[in-house]
Amino acid sequence: MRKACIYLSCSRTAFAATIAAWAVLLLGGCEVRTPGSVETRLMQAAKRRVTIGGRSDSNPLSASNENIHAGQRNFAAYCMVCHGLDGQNTGVPFADKMAPPVPPLNSTSVQNYTDGQLHWIIQNGIFPSGMPASRNVFRDEEIWQMVLFIRHLPPVGSLGDPPAYSGELKPSNMPQH
């Protein structure tokens, strides 16, 4: 009988410790904070090597001025809302407040992706980062053109703020479909 009581006491203690540990993990995990440098490096390495596809795919388009400018036009029509017109978050009020923050596309962490991986990211998005898939928005050639634009970004701030945030977007100058 005594062994049974000791076993139950130990079981209750272990159960209580398990519940406490889960509560700390779950409640502590709900806090939104900027990832630390170690966490960031680990996640970037995991994305580059494991979760992001297209590593060996090559861009079939040449880096001509025509293709780069076409990529910039496509980028300005969709991506600028989060990445700014210059791809470096210029004028985007929430870019550094997201968890994880929206990366400037000229950053080493982005530029270290292969062209194929950038294509894959644009096409499929990155869950749960906030990066949406654009598979049904752009044709394959247009995505490759955006990859070229990302490889040839203009200087920070040189294209100004996105019209959506600068107040320049008015009903009279909105794109017509």
List keywords for this structure.
177 residues; mainly alpha; Cytochrome Bc1 Complex, Chain D, domain 2; 8 helices; 51% helix; 0% strand; globular
Summarize the structure.
The chain has 177 residues and is mostly helical. Helix content is 51%, strand content 0%.
What features would you describe in this structure?
The model has no long low-confidence stretch (mean pLDDT 82). The N and C termini lie far apart (80 Å). The longest helix has 28 residues, at 2-29. The chain has helices spanning 2-29, 37-51, 65-78, 80-83, 108-111, 115-124, 140-151, 163-166. 51% of the residues lie in helices and 0% in strands. The protein has a domain at 53-165: Cytochrome c-like domain (Cytochrome Bc1 Complex, Chain D, domain 2, Orthogonal Bundle), CATH 1.10.760.10.
- The proportion of residues forming helix, as a percent range, comes to 40-55%
* Helix-strand topology string: HHHHHHHH
Number of helices: 8
Number of strands: 0
Main beta sheet: strand number and arrangement?
none
CATH fold field value of one domain: Cytochrome Bc1 Complex, Chain D, domain 2
What is the CATH architecture assignment of one domain?
Orthogonal Bundle
Strand content: under 5%
Rg to the nearest angstrom? 23 Å
The CATH fourth-level homologous superfamily of one domain:
Cytochrome c-like domain
Query: What is the global morphology?
Result: globular
Mean pLDDT: 82
